[in-house]
């Protein structure tokens, strides 16, 4: 926010000085247009400038027609709004309604629709919005450090979650408030938003999709973890099978921080599934319910790992 304020201040000063140097009437209006033109990303800044210029040209055309036909009456302003605003909305450029209104009011105050007045308004548009667009394109802060920090937060929370679940499987009397689930979700949302903004700051070739893919993957995995947490609530007895699943979860708590997909937890799950088939059937209803929840938990772990295997980098083969 502080950086955007500095960019806005710079754009306003440059645009007003430039309008004065060009001898334009009402040069302060160029500063107002510059304020409207500053955006948070390069792509949004260019799109916004084009939309506002298009809306303003439409506003000039309607102002020229309405004031030229009906004269400079206050009720004509209402007619302008009634006609122009719906048109801008239908054209998908309603965000330019303010700039379109600004140029219309200039015509109303000056009470002239001559070529000189029209040319002055077009020049103000180009100076104000053009200056803002150039400053937008010139520099945008890179969010890489923030993205890395959010990535580390997500991985820390995931690691802690797997440790907590493993602890419950070993001792079902342990209590976990699930705070890490909420914090991980918040970090993923912020990361996804920042990753999108980072790509929007690349005007050509779309930018590096790594961060968007990463936070999308973590979002899918978090949904899977929420389902795991619901299954853990059904494990109200400590069983040997739970100890085996806890070991897999501890592997995951380490693997989650790795850049490459190790496959270690996936291999353990396969071995665990083979052992399940060789075990005796449950002796009691309670054991049946707990083992059923544990079996579903292993299925959910497989889903979690399938997302990681698909999205994470594969470790290069040795040799």
TrEMBL record:
Membrane topology annotation: Multi-pass membrane protein
Keyword tRNA-binding attributed: no
Annotated Putative aromatic acid exporter C-terminal domain residues: 144-307
Transmembrane segments: 12-37, 49-66, 72-89
Cellular component terms per the entry's GO annotation: plasma membrane
Alphabetized UniProt keyword annotations: Cell membrane, Membrane, Transmembrane, Transmembrane helix
Compartments in which it is found: Cell membrane
Protein name: Putative aromatic acid exporter C-terminal domain-containing protein
């Amino acid at each position: 926010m502080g950086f955007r304020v500095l960019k806005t201040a710079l754009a306003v000063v440059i645009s007003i000085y430039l309008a004065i140097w060009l001898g334009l009437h009402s040069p302060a209006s160029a500063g107002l247009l510059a304020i409207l033109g500053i955006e948070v990303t390069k792509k949004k800044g260019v799109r916004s400038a084009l939309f506002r210029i298009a809306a303003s040209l439409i506003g000039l055309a309607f102002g020229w027609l309405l004031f030229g036909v009906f004269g400079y009456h206050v009720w004509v302003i209402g007619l302008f709004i009634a006609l122009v605003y719906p048109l801008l909305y239908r054209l998908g450029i309603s965000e330019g309604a303010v700039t379109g209104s600004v140029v219309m009011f200039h015509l109303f105050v000056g009470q002239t629709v001559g070529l000189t007045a029209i040319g002055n308004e077009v020049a103000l548009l180009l100076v104000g919005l053009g200056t803002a667009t150039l400053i937008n394109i010139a520099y945008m802060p890179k969010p890489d450090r923030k993205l890395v920090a959010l990535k580390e937060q997500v991985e820390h929370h995931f690691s802690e979650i797997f440790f907590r679940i493993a602890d419950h499987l070993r001792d079902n009397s342990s209590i976990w408030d699930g705070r890490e689930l909420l914090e991980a979700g918040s970090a993923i949302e912020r990361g996804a938003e920042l990753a999108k903004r980072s790509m929007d700051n690349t005007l050509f070739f779309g930018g590096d999709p790594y961060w968007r893919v990463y936070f999308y993957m973590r979002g899918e995995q978090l949904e899977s973890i929420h389902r795991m947490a619901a299954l853990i609530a059904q494990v109200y007895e400590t069983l040997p099978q739970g100890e085996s699943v806890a070991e897999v979860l501890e592997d995951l708590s380490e693997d989650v921080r790795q850049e490459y997909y190790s496959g270690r937890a996936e291999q353990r799950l396969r071995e665990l599934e083979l052992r399940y088939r060789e075990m005796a059937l449950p002796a009691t209803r309670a054991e049946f319910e707990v083992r059923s929840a544990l079996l579903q938990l292993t299925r959910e772990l497989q889903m979690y790992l399938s997302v990681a295997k698909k999205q994470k980098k594969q470790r290069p083969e040795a040799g």
